[in-house]
């Protein structure tokens, strides 16, 4: 193979390997800096990822939406969820559309299975990564509180369809702070 | 010690004992010496061992990096963490740049290790970013982005370690996309598998092969990948048609993989160098035996009409016919015979047979066509050798024996009858084995 072609292919490879994470970093930093802060109610943990370490599985609610007509969206289809804060400050879905909404906070989501008019949606954030030492304690805390009277909420920054999970909270207090105040977690 | 070193050390003794004339001994010594040079680094060290050690080293360093990232240093500012992981990736890329600059002067093991190191460093960088920003998505999604980013490294270096990584990743990713009940866009579905596989063979771009021959590890991994990937694709395509009977598509996939066209030299290579034939053929035979039972044949014809209405089925049938023609031209009769098992289910689509079965409110029973077909394959393999053609008598006898056992197990005969048949079959098999050995020995002595 011509050595120039080798260099070109390698350069393209290097460029991709730098561009992909940098673009992700740029996009997510923008969301964190400028995105609207939304709170989602959470349920059900299940932590593990073989490549990226320990995490808390976050199942943000609501994860279903009733559409006007049956079979409007197919499983696997990417749509936009228009969000609004309910009276309790937690997120509710106002509408699901194929086109990106002109106003209001919205997130690009994947449709799952449909049951009649009810469409299940998959949020683009479903995990909160943790240090391996704090993970077991955090898991225990999460399991204990996620079914309690006060809801664990996921604090998510939302901008132009993108969402970044920034914190988990219980009664307005960051869970990292709660964990650090617990005696055996450093 | 390499085989060639051993040969070189034996030559003087053979020459001394008069087994080899000195002229032949000299030529043999020169030949073995040349071959030994290509297999070792000139100091007697095996190149394969060097490559394996180099790859293992890179694998351990990369795995260590991933584990370090997985620890999640949440007290270290994210800017520092990101800079650290990019620095490691830059180091790995620098090593690859040095290898490319050196060209053919760079030892093979360094090329392999550098390729794998940059693959793992890029993966580590991606993992860190997705960890810092709590990105969603399961690990096959992550794997997919990772393999796309490192594909150019495989192309630039043409190293086997990157090709193995690519093959494993595309197989795992495609299998994870098998869920046909959910609609995936084509670029996120098993339909992408053929494109991803084509990207690795033979380590594009360019037509020059990466070395004198692909190592067995790459061949076997590619064969397994092709079987799993195309079966996932078959399963996905039939589920998109809201059907459930993948069995026929699996058989067609196995047959296509087994009959993949080979050059004349390729066809003459030993079996271990043709894993696609071994794995594809074995898969077909196992499915053939299953279908020779009543329940297996019933499962095969369930939703066969759904399979017949799936375009992918007819693509596979078309390819199979084309591959069969090439295989016949290469005189690969055994592969053609076993591959033709995948066309037996077509019988149930023949209008007359289907009509006859429907008269009795039943689906056509394919267990007998499968049994007869398998029996004939076994018989021909046994007899061919006795008539001077290239056969496989022991393998043929084994096929017939297994067929009898499977059919007996499926039958409603009494246990006593079954036990008698098993004993007779076992004795016949042992008797054949002994008889065949004697016949062959007598033939060799006569020759």
Features of this protein?
heterodimer, A: 186 residues, alpha+beta, 2 domains, five-stranded antiparallel beta sheet, 3 helices, 12 strands, 27% helix, 37% strand, globular, B: 447 residues, mainly alpha, 20 helices, flat
Short description:
The complex is a heterodimer of chains A (186) and B (447). With 186 residues, chain A is of the alpha+beta class.
Descriptive account of the structure:
The complex is a heterodimer of chains A (186) and B (447). With 186 residues, chain A is α+β, with helices and mostly antiparallel strands. Chain A has 2 domains: 1-34; 35-181, no CATH class. Chain A contains 3 helices and 12 strands; from the N terminus they run αβββββββββαβββα. Chain A has helices at 3-34, 135-146, 175-181, and strands at residues 36-43, 55-57, 59-61, 64-66, 78-85, 91-97, 106-115, 118-122, 127-129, 152-159, 162-170, 173-174. In chain A, the strands form 3 sheets. Chain A has a 5-stranded antiparallel beta sheet. In chain A, strands 4-8-7-5-6 form a 5-stranded antiparallel beta sheet, with no helix packed on it. In chain A, strands 2-9 form a two-stranded antiparallel ribbon. In chain A, β10 (152-159) and β11 (162-170) form a beta hairpin. Chain A is globular, with a radius of gyration of 20 Å. Among the domains of chain B are: 1-45, no CATH class; 243-410, no CATH class. Chain B has 20 helices and no strands. Chain B is flat, with a radius of gyration of 27 Å. The chains are: A alpha+beta (186), B mainly alpha (447).
